[in-house]
Amino acid sequence: MPAEQEDDAIAVAWHPCTAALLTSLFGAAAFARQAAALATPPRAVCVRANTLRATVGEVRAQLVALAGEGVREAHPGVPEALLVDNGGARQLDDLASCDGREVAVSRRCAEAVLRGADVYVPGVLGCSTGTEAGVLVAVTAVVEPLGASSAGMTRGTVLPRFADRPPRLLLGCASPLSSAGAWLTLVAASGAPSSRAAPCSACATASQSRC
User: Fold this and answer.
1) Among 5, 45, 164, 182, which one is least packed by beta carbons within 10 Å?
2) 64-81 burial, b for 16+ CB within 10 Å, e for fewer?
């Protein structure tokens, strides 16, 4: 991982028994490298073309229009699979512009975001005061503690504004489209391109639903 990204490296929490077993099998140094690799966002997103609806060439052309020329075949044995280069993890330069505003999402929503999805409203657990359409916010993930079944945050939580960095796992910065629409995520943690910003069909209009 480049030096400028070391401060933002994600630490993986291992169960002590699992960590002890893997250390005994691979050695402490090898296990540390494996843990670091698992916490590093991938440098490419894999897309599988639905050849019942479009040819691989048509899907490739759409991806090139969205992501540039960094689209390539994943493997000769799987011709419908394409890899889209995203450059891996990137440094956040606009965190200060969030003015302490934060939107916290569930772990499942965060996992989808790290693979290139938009932040969807059902995945939002809470946000800071002053969050509205068009302002920049920090998008963070609420992860369950090791061994727990709940993240400890209920949906609708009002979050205090952070001073320097959010207290939760930082995914990136985004600008809400509306109080009931999807967020067009600019994900610095994964570098995955966001291809759309359609409102979430599961939510009502902005006048009926607030996040």
Assistant:
1) 164
2) eeebeeebeebeeeeeee
Question: pTM here?
Answer: 0.59
| Angle formed by the axes of helices 16-26 and 28-38, nearest 10° | 120
pLDDT value at position 199?
30
Spatial CA neighbour of 211 closest among 134, 120, 144, 136:
120
Q: Which two tokens stand for residue 92?
A: 């956040």
CA distance 138 to 131: 10
Residue 103 contacts residue 183 (beta carbons within 8 Å):
yes
Structural domains present in the chain: 3-38 (no CATH), 44-85 (no CATH), 95-186 (2.30.130.10)
Residue 194 near residue 185, CB atoms below 8 Å: yes
What pLDDT digit, counting tens, does each position of 86-99 carry?
766 666 666 788 88
What radius of gyration, in Å, describes the C-alpha atoms of the chain?
19
